[in-house]
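Database export, one record per block. Field names are fixed; values are copied verbatim from the stored entry.
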Amino acid sequence: MTSLRALLANNIKQRRKVLGISQAVLAERAQTSTHYIAQIEQQNKFPSAEMLERIAKALEFDSTELFTIGKFPEEALNQFKEGLKAVFNVLNISLDEKIDELTNNKK
């Protein structure tokens, strides 16, 4: 069973990674210190309801999503796929063709 502190810490870290922001950027957006964000992510501190709302807003989602299990990996994967599509479009390569090529080479 995952503790609330662990769930919160993991979700904040994962969301920061999805957004590509540092603890310092998150702290600035949430109007707190980088040290405090680090303490939350290390499960040493648990923020107040007001701070949870500020962190959620800074991470661009609803505060209840800070305690949602399993949302971020799929979202991160989708953003990664979109990024790959953009790169492949610039290179004139179809993502589906590339996936087929890679999977056929493994067979």
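Remark 1: The chain has six helices and no strands.
Remark 2: The mean pLDDT is 84.
End of record.
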